[in-house]
Amino acid sequence: MSVLASLLDQALASGHLLESSRKNIDLLLSGSASPLAETAISELATAGEWEELNDRFFKTLAFGTGGLRGRTIGKVVTAAEQGKGGPNDRPEHPCFGTATMNFFNVSRAVRGLIAYAKRHVGPSRKAKLVFAHDTRHFSRDFAEFCAKVSTELGCDAFLYESGRATPQLSFTIRELRADAGVVLTASHNPSHDNGFKAYFNDGAQIVEPDASAIIAEVNALESEIYEALPASEHGTVTTLGAEMDRRYMDRLKSLLMQPQLLTGAKTRVVYTNLHGVGGVIIVPMLRELGFEVITVPEQDVQDGRFPTVDSPNPENAPALKMAIDLAEKEGAEIVIGTDPDNDRMGVAVRDSAGQMRLLTGNQIGSLMAWYRAKTAFEIGWLNDTTRARALFVKTFVTTELQSAIAHRYGIGVVDTLTGFKYIAEKLRKYEDAIPADKKGDYRSLDETTTRNLRLEYSRFFLFGGEESYGYLGCDFVRDKDGNGAAVMFAEVAAYAKSVGKTLADVLDDIFREFGYHEERGKSLVMEGADGAAKIQALASSYSHNPPVEVDGSAVAKIRDFATQDLFDAEGDALPKEKMLFVDLADGRSFAVRPSGTEPKIKFYLFGKTTPSDDVAASKSKVGASLDSLWSAIEADAKSRMA
């Protein structure tokens, strides 16, 4: 028995090492192509870093419908991993582990995706895969590796020359008629994380029936080692860059409903990409539209450390502080910030008192939803005959203000589970409903033509989004799009200016008409192997022991998405998911669900009032009620974990 094996067996016997960790260490050692794997594990074992080993090996990083996501830099970095070091102070090598993001897991993921894509395409041609990446540690390394594996296994690969946004990958898959694609990103997660997000041939994240088949292919692989095909059967790598950027930008302009509003608007905007890839498209795009764009120099630098922020997440106010400070200095009217892979957008706007006001994702989305619904009738996109075929698609945990807006304008609204893949699944359904002889090559048609086809034969998606700062106003992209969101929001800003109001004024007008709505996002973070178990136990406790009274109000209705057979507004069955939605008798609501991408359990709180001219009083009333509700929920959660 080797020295390492002896150390591991002793740790297992003494309770320091989990049984699953012991098994998975052997799995990685037998399936890793790197001789450094054993060196790194031995280093941790010799130092008695059992908590680190358990965190790295308590599970295999299973490929799910969201792909993979995990730490690529360990809490403890071994000398073997540090090596000579890499760019932006990262280690030379990603951390070794079956529960972490490294070449062991990326190899499994891309090979499983390739296997399914090849089977789906058949023998008549080579499968085509597109790869993009953000600025995170190892993102470029992983993307180049994926392209190499693809060609060696007989596929043609398309690789962006440098960092690009997640929604641009979605657009590119559709534009190139590719069979699948991957973006290497962990979105807004901490800098030590990375991920592998997989898309299928419609440009959307994988859903059933493809999802189960791809997941089975990936999870059946237990080694990163593979045998390349003969050179004569290899595919090619095509580098993508400025030409595809231009095609994407030209299509984004079709999101504008009243482009004349932007002529001469001369709105000054401060933009930050938070060290990510958003500036590649957003900055030139807004400048082409006539906006004066000022960027935050310190945050223009593409750096996976995200050195100027604690979290590169535009949902968090501190992430936009430098941009807001610059806006104050430059007299800018709007601040726009996007996360590293540019699928989420946060904003701050100047109110009538001259103060910068941060908006929530629900408020940003509601401004765009209201403007697009109102304007669609004003410019003739919709009328009394066609309104029934138009709709918003949003998630259950997104504000009901958007439902109120939809109902006022007589258009539909469909709620989906959390995850933009479910919104994208609806878009595929609406496209597929158009008769084949009418739609032809749908992806080559302009927006006016596709809109008319959807209004005649299917349903017209006018706007959709998630409370977590993700928005979409088209169907030529099948994921939330920070680029498109910036274009749509810029138009709303130009509209507000054209009527002599600030965006904050417009939002308050919406509250007066539809009632004040406020939502709060809260979470409890529990990391590592122990944390994952606690999260699942807490989530399960709500199903097994649902509340009957919360904060002095009786529970009026419970929707348990894990156990009940539930259907959306179109009668489509909802997949089972661990989420509980609780409606209280006093009109407040809350939902609870484990995050699919982060080590946390999330809580969503909802409060509202009836329409009133006294918006300030409504805000105060609802705010106090949600403060009280969270105190009760937090206390209950702690008692459930006791």
From TrEMBL:
Pfam families xref list: PGM_PMM_I, PGM_PMM_II, PGM_PMM_III, PGM_PMM_IV
SUPFAM superfamilies the record matches: Phosphoglucomutase, C-terminal domain (SSF55957), Phosphoglucomutase, first 3 domains (SSF53738)
Record has Oxidoreductase as a keyword: no
Cofactor dependence: Mg(2+)
Domain named Alpha-D-phosphohexomutase alpha/beta/alpha: residues: 98-222, 247-351, 361-513
Top-level lineage group: Bacteria
InterPro entries attached to this UniProt entry: A-D-PHexomutase_a/b/a-I (IPR005844), A-D-PHexomutase_a/b/a-I/II/III (IPR016055), A-D-PHexomutase_a/b/a-II (IPR005845), A-D-PHexomutase_a/b/a-III (IPR005846), A-D-PHexomutase_C (IPR005843), A-D-PHexomutase_C_sf (IPR036900), A-D-PHexomutase_CS (IPR016066), Alpha-D-phosphohexomutase_SF (IPR005841)
Stretches assigned to coiled coil: none
Alpha-D-phosphohexomutase C-terminal domain location: 569-608
Keywords on record: Isomerase, Magnesium, Metal-binding, Phosphoprotein
Family label: Belongs to the phosphohexose mutase family.
Name under which the protein is recorded: Phospho-sugar mutase
Species whose genome carries this gene: Luteolibacter arcticus
Species lineage: Bacteria, Pseudomonadati, Verrucomicrobiota, Verrucomicrobiia, Verrucomicrobiales
